[in-house]
Amino acid sequence: xxxxTTAEQKSTTRNLYVSKKNADKPLRECVRQAVDHYFxxxxxxxxxxxxxxxxxxxxxxxxxSVMQHTxxxxxxxxxxxxxxxxxxxxxxxxxxxx
Length: 98
What we know:
The chain has 5 helices and no strands. It is mainly alpha-helical. It folds into 2 domains: 37 residues; 49 residues, Orthogonal Bundle (Arc Repressor Mutant, subunit A).
């Protein structure tokens, strides 16, 4: 098995798109719109802890999708995600996946 180069990974990242409704928008634009919408609806309330909120909203469905794609193979999932298998297991436990 060969590892992909950073350039190949960046190319793949540029091609992440979401839902048919937003098929023409890269994932980063969908995130930007969601964050802009979040700020627009704060109604003067403080926007504390946004980073943690955003990561928790994105990380769980990411892990669920990757685990489904790999048939719950944690070794393969950790390779796809580019994280250590122990880290993956910790995150799966945190989000009660599997």
